[in-house]
């Protein structure tokens, strides 16, 4: 009798404990693929172990439609979202996000307050900057045995560097690269794009190679195109090329000249169903150690100054990671910081013009 009662009691305790822990969760929405895997290994598992809060990870394509629909319908299921700059600003302006001033962001490992450990512009009204990534040009060196490309102008020089080019079917970063490839200094790129003459110049730069372009829409396509020798050079995301180099032993090289560096941020959805857990998650993710943890799996650089110093070797291969990070000062060459406000103000018009130009 006593044994039966003890077993029943143990079963009830286990059931109730499981029930309680099942309620402690947070839904995090991100871009999937190798980036999501890097986050899982880099700090998601550590967050779950430290807090007991389960992360329910979902993928999305970066657009606002689903987030907007949830908030407007009063049926929010997401808590935290990985957001790119223009989407972050628009969502914040529309009231779709919680302000971050209610967060208690941790100091750096050596005690520097968070607000002094983040570069200007990476802590915004609704977003906490997490990682830097870059749109770069990558190439297959075996295609160029005599002389390899070394500057962004070479991407647009079909005569000297023959072969087809992979280009993102999206004007963001592509128009900037087109202008730098035509000799525009990075400091002048956005002033140029604010003028009709500058926009025309960007499209004219692309037009010089248009008949050699293979357009891509998914980030996994450029490294595959390079591997298949379908193209000789590709505008791509540095993390995708890095994974092909590091994990697939591809011989690709990145031409860091003319790179466009952007910031990925974490945001909390307005009326998030697990608001307290969402805050805990973003605070944990904002630790320098968490950002460096992701950078041990994928070549995206920590936003926090102290995070860069913590980056060591790749978690799988053991190779040093800092040489692969887009913010490494040793890269040299021309670098452009993606202008979020410019694209918030001009995206619709430039997407329309880009689409029209593609159809000609």
What can you see in these coordinates?
There is one protein chain. With 360 residues, the protein is α/β, with parallel strands linked by helices. The protein folds into 2 domains: 2-131 and 264-322, Periplasmic binding protein-like II (D-Maltodextrin-Binding Protein, domain 2), CATH 3.40.190; 133-262 and 328-359, D-Maltodextrin-Binding Protein, domain 2 (3-Layer(aba) Sandwich). The protein has helices at residues 2-23, 33-51, 65-73, 85-93, 114-117, 174-180, 189-193, 196-207, 221-227, 238-247, 275-285, 288-294, 305-310, 340-359; strands at 25-30, 54-59, 80-84, 128-139, 165-168, 213-216, 233-237, 253-268, 301-302, 335-337. Strands 1, 2, 3, 4, 5, 6, 7, 8, 9 and 10 form a 10-stranded mixed β-sheet that branches. Strand 1, helix 2 (33-51) and strand 2 form a beta-alpha-beta unit. Helix 2 runs antiparallel to helix 12 and helix 4 (85-93) packs across helix 14. The radius of gyration is 23 Å and the shape is globular. The model is unreliable at 15-21 (pLDDT under 50).
């Amino acid at each position: 009798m006593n044994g039966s009662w003890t077993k029943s009691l143990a079963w009830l305790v286990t059931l109730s404990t499981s029930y309680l822990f099942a309620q402690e969760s947070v839904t995090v929405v991100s871009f999937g693929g190798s980036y999501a895997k890097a986050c899982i290994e880099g700090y998601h598992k550590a967050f779950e172990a430290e807090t007991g809060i389960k992360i329910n990870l979902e993928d999305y394509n970066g657009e606002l439609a689903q987030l907007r629909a949830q908030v407007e319908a009063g049926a929010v299921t997401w808590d935290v979202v990985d957001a790119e700059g223009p989407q972050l600003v628009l969502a914040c302006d529309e009231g779709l996000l919680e302000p971050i001033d209610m967060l208690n962001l941790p100091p750096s490992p050596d005690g520097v307050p968070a607000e002094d450990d983040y570069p200007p512009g990476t802590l915004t009204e609704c977003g906490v900057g997490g990682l830097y990534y870059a749109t770069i040009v990558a190439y297959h060196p075996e295609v160029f045995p005599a002389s390899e490309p070394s500057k962004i102008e070479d991407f647009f020089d079909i005569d000297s560097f023959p072969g087809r080019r992979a280009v993102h079917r999206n004007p963001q970063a592509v128009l900037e690269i087109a202008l730098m490839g035509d000799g525009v200094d990075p400091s002048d790129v956005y002033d140029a794009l604010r003028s009709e003459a500058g926009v025309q110049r960007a499209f004219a730069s692309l037009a010089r190679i248009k008949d050699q372009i293979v357009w891509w829409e998914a980030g996994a396509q450029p490294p595959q195109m390079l591997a298949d020798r379908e193209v000789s050079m590709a505008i791509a995301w540095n993390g995708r090329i890095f994974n092909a180099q590091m994990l697939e032993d591809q011989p690709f090289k990145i031409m860091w000249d003319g790179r466009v560096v952007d910031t990925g941020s974490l945001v909390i959805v307005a009326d998030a169903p697990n608001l307290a857990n969402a805050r805990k998650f973003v605070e944990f993710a904002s630790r320098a150690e968490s950002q460096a943890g992701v950078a041990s799996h994928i070549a995206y650089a920590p936003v926090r100054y102290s995070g860069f110093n913590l980056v060591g070797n790749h978690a799988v291969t053991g190779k040093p990671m800092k040489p692969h990070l887009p913010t490494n000062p040793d890269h040299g060459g021309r670098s452009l910081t993606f202008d979020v406000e410019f694209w918030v103000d001009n995206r619709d018009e430039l997407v329309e013009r880009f689409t029209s130009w593609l159809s000609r």
